[in-house]
């Protein structure tokens, strides 16, 4: 094969060992999961050139996304998953083990405590983005994986101020959103923090318009 025509691919991890009983407690991989995987695959040549030392997923759920990154990028990078749901932490560990990759898993709330300990080169977040009452954001069970409160942004908005401290100088951040999240406002908030935004991929499904957006520091070269 001529390498000039080689297109890097991301292999979807095995996760069929997860059962309907598991999905009563964790977010089942769905259209937004696979759109995020597609976006990462689209950017894979850039990600590989970046050679990220640390890849982190916030809200790993089943663990499919961080495991896909680990399978694709290999042992040259370290992988960290954080989820507030203990069942999701267990599932992420299981999917990583099932696919033969090493993923460190932490039960925690967003990036609390991490910003002073490390910097991240590749950060991904498929947040709770559905517009709901604020009370649902603080609920229990699997609903916390999708209930986003006002504008669907109450969880992701808490993360944004930590990004300048968490991301390395060359770090990139991938975020899943829907149009109801008011993307222009998100772009403005992140611009004030020194980041520029690019829409990598989008998909319309069942009345929702999903998008994956990429943020890099403004001084970085355009991809």
TrEMBL record:
Q: Name one GO molecular function term.
A: protein-glutamine N-methyltransferase activity
Among CDD domains, the record links this protein to: AdoMet_MTases
Q: Which domain of life is it from?
A: Eukaryota
Q: Where is the signal peptide?
A: none
Q: In what residue span(s) does the Methyltransferase small domain sit?
A: 54-133
Keyword annotations for this protein?
Answer: Methyltransferase, Nucleus, S-adenosyl-L-methionine, Transferase
Task: Name any Gene Ontology BP term.
Answer: methylation
Q: Which InterPro entries did the record assign? A: DNA_methylase_N6_adenine_CS, Euk-Arch_PrmC-MTase, PrmC-related, SAM-dependent_MTases_sf, Small_mtfrase_dom
Q: What is its main location?
A: nucleus
Q: Where in the cell is it found?
A: Nucleus
Which Pfam family, any one, appears in the UniProt record? MTS
Say yes or no: keyword Metal-binding present: no
Q: Which reaction does it catalyse?
A: L-lysyl-[histone] + S-adenosyl-L-methionine = N(6)-methyl-L-lysyl-[histone] + S-adenosyl-L-homocysteine + H(+); methylarsonous acid + S-adenosyl-L-methionine = dimethylarsinate + S-adenosyl-L-homocysteine + 2 H(+)
Annotated Gene Ontology cellular components are: eRF1 methyltransferase complex; nucleus
State the family it belongs to: Belongs to the eukaryotic/archaeal PrmC-related family.
What does the annotation say about its assembly with partners? Heterodimer; heterodimerization with TRMT112 is required for S-adenosyl-L-methionine-binding.
| Role of this protein | Methyltransferase that can methylate proteins and, to a lower extent, arsenic. Catalytic subunit of a heterodimer with TRMT112, which monomethylates 'Lys-12' of histone H4 (H4K12me1), a modification present at the promoters of numerous genes encoding cell cycle regulators. Catalytic subunit of a heterodimer with TRMT112, which catalyzes N5-methylation of Glu residue of proteins with a Gly-Gln-Xaa-Xaa-Xaa-Arg motif. Methylates ETF1 on 'Gln-185'; ETF1 needs to be complexed to ERF3 in its GTP-bound form to be efficiently methylated.
Q: What is this protein called?
A: Methyltransferase HEMK2
What organism does the UniProt record list as the source? Timema cristinae (Walking stick)
